[in-house]
Amino acid sequence: MLNLIGRCRCFSAELHSSIAFLSIDSSAILRWHRSMTTSKRVQDRSKKKRVHDLEIVTEKHKILSKVLLIFEVLKQEPQQVISIRELDHYRRQINLPKPHKISAFLRKSPKLFEMYKDDRGILWCGMTKEAEDLVQEEEAIIKQHSDKAAELVTRMLMMSIDKRLALDKIVHFRRDLGLPMDFRNHWVRRFPNHFRVVQPFKPYDESEYLELVNWKSSWAMTELERQALGVMHAPDDHVAGPLSLSFPMKFPPDYKQVLSRYKGKIEDFQKREYLSPYADAMELKAGTLEFNKRAVAVMHELLSFTIGKRLVTDYLTHFRKEFVMPQKLMRLLLKHFGIFYVSERGKRFHVFLNSAYEGSELIEKHPLIVWREKVLSFVGYRKKKERMDTLKDFQEFEDDDLFENESEDESVQVENDKQTMCSLEGDFLETESEMEIDEVCSAYRE
Question: Is residue 389 predicted with pLDDT exceeding 50?
Fold first, then answer.
């Protein structure tokens, strides 16, 4: 009995010793884990590289995209009105996570949206007269610039390795290129001399593709070449080949130390010859300097196509294979921060073409950009300050009063329109970025 008690005491002492060791070890592991994770946060590591003016542009886009999607949802309704309950089906596309109330967001813009309850107490939403006029104005602008949009889509096909792209991928560029809502089903068939819709090429592939019909040599010239030569189009016998043009670069004032440190590398990069995005790049070896500089040229060209000179980075990564770009595309974007600026606000990263901006303003504004600025001027009421000019203003707009306790209409279950959901899914669905954080941080360390 005494022997048993002694063994129990010995076991107890060993147990306390093990627990103490585990406690120390676990705390050490926790500290190590924190150092490995928090130090790798892009937002933390890149604070010194943020460009405040372009962050404001990102915040404007986050607000505007919500408004534009609601416009498009309402446009597809027979009477251009929808119940709040049914509008809630689009919560993910609008990027308004719970517990935020959609009705609270709508009430922030009484000049654009009006709400009312019917006899059954169901809450409905519609557009104001000002909003209806704005929607008609947008349609007119898109129609007026339709030929130019067709040219840009054709040039994307000319840049692609197989001269065809999946429609599901092109739809991500719809708003950025100024394409209409009926892009997928009708618009693509209005230009049979440029491209055509073809069926899947692989078994079990349900996607449709847009395929190039005619190669236009006069379009096989980059925007940089056009600017350098002062021409709108190349000659009809133009042949895309090696280029030696430097990329326009723009750095914030506080980048002086970085510039002095990497001046030699930047100059070497700018002097290096590269292959035109419209030339055949199959012989280029991935990872080489020539391969990477051509990839920069492709990204520069795609961003030049967009009306806002910015894109969600995921949209670029979708085309890595088609445009022969590196697997670690984000690393390349961050490395060439004089050419591109990457904003990490929100769930998805945005990449800007630096040279296209002066502060937070585009140097050359597409009519659709002017239109969107007009829409944004109708968003929200401010008591003492009507304009939202700072990053804090836009953050306050998104955060204020979104948690107010009001009851949404729960009395009617409306079946979701799947076709409408599909047509809008590609434009505004906000998901986590596919970029690996480790990749981004590695690029910042370089």
Answer: yes
DSSP strand pairing (350-353 vs 340-343)? antiparallel
DSSP state of 10: H
Residue 428 burial (C-beta neighbours within 10 Å; 0-12, 13-18, 19+): middle
Contact 115, 387 (CB under 8 A): no
d(CA 264, CA 294): 20
**What are the helix (H) ranges across 108-192?**
129-144, 146-159, 167-170, 174-177
CA distance 318 to 328: 12
DSSP code of 202?
S
CA-to-CA separations, 355 to 93, 283, 340, in angstroms, rounded = 31, 31, 8
Nearest in space to 84 (alpha carbons), one of 66, 67, 105: 105
pLDDT of 349 > 80? The answer is yes
Model confidence at 367, in pLDDT bands (50, 70, 90)? very high
Average pLDDT in the 106-118 region? 91
- Return d(Cα 163, Cα 184) in angstroms, integer: 18
Phi-psi group of 416: left, alpha or beta (phi > 0 → left; psi -120 to 50 → alpha; rest → beta): beta
8 A C-beta contact, residue 379 and residue 368: no
Distance CA 72, CA 75 (A): 5
**Angle between helical axes of 52-75 and 418-428 (0-180°, round to 10):** 170
> Do residues 376 and 61 lie in contact, with contact meaning Cβ atoms separated by under 8 Å?
no
Quote the percentage of the chain above a pLDDT of 90.
45
Q: How confident is the model over 224-267, as pLDDT tens digits?
A: 999 988 888 888 888 889 999 999 998 877 777 777 788 888 89
Residue 206 CA to chain centroid, in angstroms? 25
Report the pLDDT value the prediction gives residue 72, as an integer from 0 to 100.
Answer: 93
| DSSP bridge partners of 156 | none
Q: How far is CA 138 from CA 90, 127, 133, 366, in A?
A: 22, 15, 9, 12
What is the distance between the alpha carbons of residues 438 and 440, in angstroms, rounded to a whole number? 5
SS3 of 376, please?
helix
Task: Give, in order, the Cα–Cα distances in Å from 252 to each of 53, 92, 147, 256.
Answer: 10, 35, 36, 8
Q: Taking each helix axis from N to C terminus, what angle separates 146-159 and 289-305, rounded to the nearest 10 degrees?
A: 170
